Amino acid sequence: MRKILVANRGEIALRVMRTAQKMGIKTVAVCSEADRNAPHVRFAGEAVLLGPAPSSESYLAMEKVLQAAKDTGADGIHPGYGFLSENAVFAQMVEDHHITFIGPRPHAIKVMGNKLAAKEAVRDYDIPMVPGIEESITDIKLAEKTAKEIGFPILIKASAGGGGKGMRVVASLEELPEQMNRAISEAEAAFGDGAVFIEKYVSSPRHIEIQVLADTHGNVVHLFERECSVQRRHQKVVEEAPSAVLTPEIRKAMGEAAIKVAKACDYVGAGTVEFLLDEHKNFYFLEMNTRLQVEHPVTELICGLDLVEQQIKVARGEKLGFAQEDLKIQGHALEVRVYAEDPLDNFNPSIGTLSTYQIPNGEGVRVDDGFEEGMPIPIYYDPMIAKLITYGKTRDEAIQLMVKAIGDYHIEGVATTLPFGQFVCEHEAFRTGNFDTHFVKQYYSPEALQKKYAEEKEIAAKVGLFLFLEQQQKL
């Protein structure tokens, strides 16, 4: 592979290009008009303008992306995450034009992109699953019958897509018709597919995912777990590896289950198998993400691997250079996603220009970003500015490093989720590992964050006064 087109933007485009450059591979950037001067465009050896800012006319325009690859002579396309990364039609188009898609085969993307198809695919592999039905449902009467059999509370989920869309928790039979219709409408609007299904609602779950890596020679390994339970609106904001609560036995069982899921769809490349872990430490298959995850850096740090490099090597047809027994967990890593969102205003987007942008540095601190000081935050895309990652020998060390790094990260011009990240890292429930996916609902509120702000200002003022008086006495 001599030249890779990265069909993405922002931090992940830069992340992929840096590894490609390290491997001696030329890179091609694509961009919208909103990203003409973005860092990933300047970093690449070549750049192609796809079109106007809206994703549908640029980063999601399959024909334009493919034509850019052909025009620049790229023999590989890396999709990053989001946009076209889990689009089986695009992956097939790339293959049909004899360009290497750096990701799984179209079949695996298609199967695992539909939750019901994914459940069907793994049915014969003895994978634990949440009790529920394994086909889509639209009939209210049948839904009521099914819900009674499963027992309330239940969860209505969209078969396609994710991110919490088309998802409804139903506590009673009376709520079911309205919530069912809402879930179907939401799923149709978000994914163009109104298919939903019903399963038992796991009331206090942790979100644990397993990183898998597979080559084209039948070798599949897992790279241990990531804990992704701190979420807002069903989307992750703080991740860590390894989990603070998994025993070696559960870790081994979940890893083996994840490998079975990968084998069930003939998976190739880097992928992530997501599980729910209940309060009794029972785990259940949730879904598979057929791409590189946003939070992959925490796995890289505890395993000492470059996952993008592994993706490229697998796409070139190389065998994995290690076996499962060669992999060991080394230390602890933590990631806080830095979004241009206001945690004091229900995490609503904060649009503006980065008038100040200074990143932290030092041993054990990593920042994956795609912005620079003076750049505006475009309104057309996901509002993530960067990922702040810390690594320590222990979990406590990684947390302490994160708190310090957040304090050293200076952003002005937009509100960010950095204060929320600090709130999480300093909260007793997080520090002790005693939390689940309801962390935000249980512990966080704008008032709690404002109270913390006020307390810190008061302490700072007292310290300042003490130092001033001490200095005065010396005069």
Instruction: Tell the overall outline.
Output: globular
- Number of H/I helices: 16
Low-confidence stretches: none
**Widest β-sheet, arrangement of strands:** 13-12-9-10-11-14-19-18
Domain ATP-grasp: 119-316
GO biological process, one term: malonyl-CoA biosynthetic process
InterPro entries: Acetyl_CoA_COase_biotin_COase, ATP-grasp, BC-like_N, Biotin_carboxylase_complex, Biotin_carboxylation_dom, Biotin_COase_C, CPAse_ATP-bd, PreATP-grasp_dom_sf
Organism: Aggregatimonas sangjinii
Word description of this protein:
The chain has 475 residues and is α+β, with helices and mostly antiparallel strands. The protein folds into 3 domains: 3-102, 3-Layer(aba) Sandwich (Rossmann fold); 132-200, ATP-grasp fold, A domain (Dna Ligase, domain 1, 2-Layer Sandwich), CATH 3.30.1490.20; 206-446, ATP-grasp fold, B domain (D-amino Acid Aminotransferase, Chain A, domain 1, 2-Layer Sandwich). Helices cover 37% and strands 24% of the residues. It has helices spanning 10-22, 39-43, 62-72, 88-96, 106-112, 115-122, 140-150, 176-191, 248-264, 296-303, 307-315, 395-408, 418-426, 428-431, 439-443, 446-474, and strands spanning 3-6, 26-32, 46-51, 76-78, 100-101, 154-158, 168-170, 196-200, 206-214, 220-232, 235-241, 269-277, 283-289, 332-339, 341-342, 348-349, 356-358, 365-369, 384-392, 410-412. It has an 8-stranded antiparallel β-sheet with strand order 13-12-9-10-11-14-19-18, sandwiched between helices. Helix 1 links the parallel strand 1 and strand 2 (26-32). The mean pLDDT is 95. It comes from Aggregatimonas sangjinii. Its EC number is 6.3.4.14.
